[in-house]
Structures are given as structure tokens and as C-alpha cells.
Write a structure and sequence with these properties.
4-stranded antiparallel beta sheet, about 0% helix, mainly beta, globular
Length: about 170
């Protein structure tokens, strides 16, 4: 078992791919996992989907250039379809892979001119609309979907624009 895990802990290697930028959600409709990740060696974006028998289906979503960094996965609340935000480092873009039917994806550019990518963070509201934060030119940015595939203008998250700033220790 992994370090510190109890003896009865079940773990399993699901792939020979060395992954980084791993993000996982449990599909509320099936109770099964979906996992987005970047293949470390090839810089490709992948998604793995758990099947009822415990094995996984794998989907190579994008492989042109250095893609998949900062992968963040969320699921549409009524369909369980995957939404994956990630960086295309070579094109200097933040992209979204949107599952439109099981295992079928569409792709869109959400923002461009991005220089350094460490992470993206994707959230889905109760209506299935997305909120996305990411690092652009070393600063945090935020953008939201106002209708499916329609994005607001990206805004830099900056304390200079804050109406109040709380400083302290949070528990």
C-alpha cells in the first residue's frame, strides 16, 4: 500500500502514463470518477473515466504542442459531462474541453496572451455555467460563462480594486 495507508487500503495503477496536473470529480449521476491530467512526457491532455467494473476508459483530448498544463476538471450538474480547463503553452491560450456526449469533446479558447501557467481552477454552477480562474502573466484572472460557450470579459483579480481587504489568519 502507499505510505501510511492501512493494510486493507485498495489502490490500483490505472495507466502507464506519468501524469501531472491531475484533477478528479465523482459523477453525481453514476458515482464513478472522471480524471483529467497532463501526460508529463508528451505534454498531452487526457481524461480517464471509471467504468462500473472498476477499469477505465482513456481519452486523448489534445496532443498538439505543450497542452494540458494546469488541468482542472468539473462536471455539468445535470448531465455529468466533463468540462476541463487547461493551458496551451505554445499557443499562449487558456482552453476549455467540453464533453458534448459520452467521450465526445468540443474545444474553445477562453483567453489568450497567457505567458506562465501553473494552474487553472474551474467551477460549475447549478445551471451548468462555468467560472474559471487562472494565472496570466503572473497574476490571477477570473472569467465566467454567461451562457453556454459565451464568456464575460476576463478581469484581473487585484486587491487594488477591492472595497475591503481582510488580513489575518483564517481557520
Amino acid at each position: 500500500p502507499p505510505y501510511g495507508a492501512p493494510e486493507n487500503y485498495r489502490y490500483e495503477k490505472i495507466s502507464n502514463i506519468e501524469a501531472e496536473y491531475v484533477s478528479m470529480k465523482i459523477n453525481p449521476l453514476t458515482g464513478l470518477a472522471k480524471i483529467a491530467f497532463q501526460d508529463r512526457a508528451n505534454k498531452d491532455l487526457w481524461m480517464a473515466e471509471e467504468k462500473a467494473d472498476g477499469r477505465f476508459n482513456f481519452y486523448l483530448l489534445e496532443s498538439a504542442g505543450n497542452v494540458g498544463g494546469g488541468a482542472s476538471l468539473n462536471l455539468h450538474p445535470s448531465t455529468g459531462y466533463a468540462r476541463i480547463s487547461y493551458a496551451d503553452v505554445d499557443a499562449k491560450q487558456i482552453k476549455l474541453a467540453r464533453e458534448t456526449s459520452p467521450g465526445v469533446f468540443s474545444f474553445e479558447v477562453v483567453d489568450s496572451g497567457t505567458v506562465v501557467i501553473d494552474t487553472t481552477a474551474l467551477a460549475c454552477d447549478t445551471n451548468g455555467l462555468l467560472r474559471l480562474s487562472y494565472v496570466k502573466n503572473g497574476k490571477p484572472w477570473f472569467i465566467k460563462e454567461t451562457a453556454s460557450g459565451v464568456w464575460s470579459a476576463a478581469v484581473q483579480v487585484d486587491t487594488a480594486d477591492a472595497t475591503s481587504v481582510a488580513v489575518g489568519v483564517y481557520n
